[in-house]
Amino acid sequence: MTRYDLIVIGAGPAGLSAAAEAAANGLKVAVFDENARPGGQLFKQIHKFFGSKEHKAKIRGYDIGTELLKEAEELGVEVFLDAVVAGLYAEKEIVVRIGEEVAHFKGDTVIVATGASENMLTFEGWTLPGVMGAGAAQTMMNINRVKPGERVLMLGSGNVGLVVGFQLMQAGCELVALVDAAPRVGGYGVHAAKVARTGVPFYLSHTVVRAEGTDRVTGVTIGEVDAKWQVIPGSEKYFDVDTICIAVGLSSSTQLLKMAGCEMAEPAPGAGYLPVCSEVGETSIPGLYAAGDVSGIEEASSAMIEGRVAGISAAGKLGFAAEETVKARLTVLESALSALHEGMFAPKNRGKALDKTEEGYDISTNLLKKGYLADEEIAKYPGVKSVSGIHPVIECTQNIPCNPCQDSCPKKCITVGGNIVTLPVFDEKQGCIGCGQCIAACSGQAIFLVNEDIGDGLASVTIPYEFLPLPEKGESGTALDRAGNVIGTAKVTDVKSVKVFDHTNLVTFTVPKELGMRARFWRKGAAV
Amino acid sequence: MRIAEHPILGAPEERKTVTFTHDGAEYTGFEGEPVAAALKAAGIAIHRYTKKYHSPRGIFCAIGRCTDCVMVINGQPNVRTCVTPLTEGMTVDTQFGAGGEDRR
Amino acid sequence: MSANDRSRDIGAFSAAPDDDMIVCRCEEVTKGEIRRAIYDGMFNVREVRRFLRCGMGLCQGQTCAKLVKAIIARELGISQGELEDAAGRAPARPIEMRIFASERGRDE
User: Fold this and answer.
1) pTM to 2 decimals?
2) Best of C52, C54, C63 to disrupt the B interface by mutation (most B CBs within 10 Å)?
3) What is the C-alpha separation between C21 and A211, in angstroms, rounded?
4) Residue ranges, chain A, pLDDT below 50
C-alpha cells in the first residue's frame, strides 16, 4: 500500500484544481481518474467560459484544461490515468484497478471529485442506436472528431442542451429542433439566442413521444404536453432525424462517498441525495472532502474554485499551511465563488420563475419561450442604444455572472460594474471605435457592432461567427433575424480572423438600413 | 461522418491509419481512436443485440459508463468500444446477448 | 407515514400503456415489471433491485437508478427524497474477477 498526503479521485476541473492547490502547499498528491485522458469534461468544452478574469472568463474550456494540467504536473502531482477507483473506505483507503491488477492506496486526506453523470428519460424507442446522451455527442465530435449524426434533435434546453446543440452545428451537423418539456428555456438566454438565430426552432412544452425506426433511429415524433406533462393528442410533430440527444440534467456521482459512509441528505426537494459538507467541502468523515459536481451540480468555473477550497483546507488540516495562510486564501476563493453564485441562474434561484432582472428590467418572455428576443423588446435593455455611427449592441438581458465585455473595450464604452451579474451598460459618449474586441470577448456571442446608416440606404452589422466555411469578402448571402427568419440579402464587406479573438471570427455585412437593428446572422447562399 | 475541418478545433492531427474487420468486412480507422468512433465513421450504428429482447444497441454515453456499446473484440465479449483504442488487425464483431451466443 | 410502511395501501396493480418500456437498459427490466413488483410489496429501491436485477447489470445502475426511484415514488405517492438510494458497494465499476483477484505486490 502506498501512502500520500492527499488522494484526489477524479482529474476533472475540481480534482485537478484541488491537487494543484494542495501540491503548491507542499503536499504529496496523487490523482486517480478512470479515463484515458485527464481533464474530465473540460476538453470537450470548446466554448468560451463565463465569469470574470479570476474565473478564466472568455477562455475556452480545453485551454483551461491544458493550463490546469500543466500547473498540476509542474507542481509534482502524480496523475494516474485509466485508474478505476473501485472502492473508498472510511479509513481513507482506496482500491484502484490499474491495468491488469488492483492496488491499494492510503491518503491522509482524500478529495472526491468524481463529477456527475447525465440524467436520462424514457420514451418509446429510447434504446435504439441513435439515441444518446448530449455528453456522448460532445465526446464524439469534440474529442473523437466524428459527427454523432447528420440530423439531430436535441431534447433539453438547459445550458448543456443549448451549448451542445450549438456545437453540433459547429461540427457540421444539422440541428433540426430543440425540445423541452418545460415551458421555459432552462439555460442562459444568450446560449439560446445564438442557436435560435441560425434558424433552429424551439419547441418548449414539448417532449419526445417516440424514436422512430426498427434497427436505428430514422425519425422522431414529438408532442406538446399539458400542465400534467401528458402529451396532448393531435399535437404530434414528426422530424426526419438520425440522432436524438438527451440533455435533461445531471446527477452527482456520489457512489464512492456513499460507500465510504459519508452522511448524505437531500438539500432541497428533488435535488437528490448529496454529501453533507462543511463550508470547505469536508464531509462527515474528517479529512474526506467532496468538491465540484459530486457535491452539487454547478458550472466548471465553480468546480475549479471548490477544488481549490478543498485543496487548501486539506493542506491546513495536515499542517502544511499555517492557519492564517489558509484563512487568507479561503477569503479570496470564497469571494470568487460568491461572484458566480449571483444572478438569476444561481443555485439559490433554481426553480424560480423570475420576471424581472435585479435592475428591474423585464426578462423577455420570448427569450424564455422561443429562444430569442423580439425586435420590439431589444431597445429597452441598457446595452442597446440607437445612436449614429458605429456602436455595440449588447443583447445581454439576464443577470448572468460575466464581465469580459467591460474589460475588452479600450474606450470604456461598456460598464458592468462590481457585481458581475449586472447587465452591461453601453455609454455612447465614450466614442466607440468599432474595434470589435467586445464581440470576441463575449462568451455568449451576444454583442454586435452596428452602424445603422452608412449611406446608400444601407446599414452595416458585424456579428461573431464560429462556423465553416467562412464567408468571403464581397460574398452575398442571406440575412437572418434573431428568430432565424430570412429577412433579406446581406453582402459581406469584411471578415476579421485574428489570433486574439480565439476562433471567433468577426463577419461584417451590409443590409438595407431598416434591417440594421434586426439582422443578426449570416447564412451562405441567396435568400429564398 | 468524420469532421475534416472544425471552426474552433481546426483539422484533426495526423493519425496512423489501421485496418480492422467488423463482422468479417474490412474497414479502416485511426490507430488509438475508440473503436466506437471508427465504427461511427464507417456508418455502423448497431453494436450488439440484447440478451432478453434481442434489441439493437449502439453508442449511448461514449465515456465507458453505460456499457451499452459493448461488442466482441478479438474474440472477447463485453468490451466497451467507446473506451477501447483501435489497433491494427483488430476484429470487431456484433455481440449477441452476453456474447458467445449464436446469432439469431 | 414512513416510506417503508408496509401497511400502506396502494390499491391493486393496473396495467399502463407504457408498461413494456425498458427502464434498466442493461438487464432489460421494464417499467411494468417494476410497477408490478411495487404492488407485490417491494417498497424501496433495494428490494426492487434485488428482485428484478434492475441496476445490477454491467453499468451498475448508473443510467436507471434515478428512473427506478421515480417510478417507485410515484406508485407509492411519496417524494423521491423519501426513498433512499441503493447502497454504494465496491467495486464501483465492473472489474473482471481475474483482475480483482490479482493484487499488486502480493507475490513480491
Assistant:
1) 0.96
2) C63
3) 12
4) none
